[in-house]
Amino acid sequence: MMGTGIFEKAIIWLYNVDAADNLFPSIHCLSSWLCVIAVRNQERIPKTYKIVSVILAVLVCISTLTTKQHVIVDVFAGILLAEFSHRLVPKALRFT
Length: 96
Hints:
Blueprint lengths: L5 H12 L9 H14 L6 H20 L5 H23 L2
Helix pairs in contact: 2-3, 2-4
């Protein structure tokens, strides 16, 4: 029987409120990876927090795949866009 367990019901609810449109890139992965970028070079942030940040970001990326909200290309594009933006913004600010 489909949709009888709590997790099945949760996925059905997710699909009802957030259609699996597979938009490119994954904004979930992009924003999660921006959080990793924000803490990774901060000396005052404990290493444990940095590791947890990476783990949580990876779990977000995996969850977008396992819930069929995105495909692998969307995930990598989100991460690459975060990295590219992080490197581009300081250069763009120098011109202002």
